Amino acid sequence: MAQAHSSYFNSEVPDIVLKSIFTKYDKDGSGCLSSTEMQEMFVTDLGMNADQAETFRYILDKDGDQKLSFDEFNRWMRSGDRFKNIEDKSRFFIIKKAIELFKTYDADGSGALDKREFRKLMIDLGAKPKNVKKAFKELDEDGDGVFSFPEFLAFLQWMPIE
Description:
The protein is mainly alpha-helical. The protein is built from ten helices and four strands; from the N terminus they run ααβααβαααβααβα.
């Protein structure tokens, strides 16, 4: 990946610059970037390849709604390790494997596991059916009724995610 993103998008960049980039890709004016809009921004302005862009779509979508708000984008861009998950090749490999596994259970392609999809995951992992409901309640950290990729990654405990 090109190093342009590391020097151009540092923690000192004015909000107006980040807002301008964000707005450029918010084609429908919703105030959030859709999956497609995120992918385009990551590839076009942040210099990521398609795999890297997909990885960040999953990591940054904290609630599994396949959208990214400006506040989420701004917070991420100002974090000290915003590109760590793709620059560290072993981290990137682990996250890609987790995404592949997650996608096998996200039958409807919604970007999050609903209770039915979560049940299949847990049963396949050997959980007793009677414990699935309780597990869902405990693992759905934000209580939004779906199991997002960041919640899934935390559940796997393969590595800490920033």
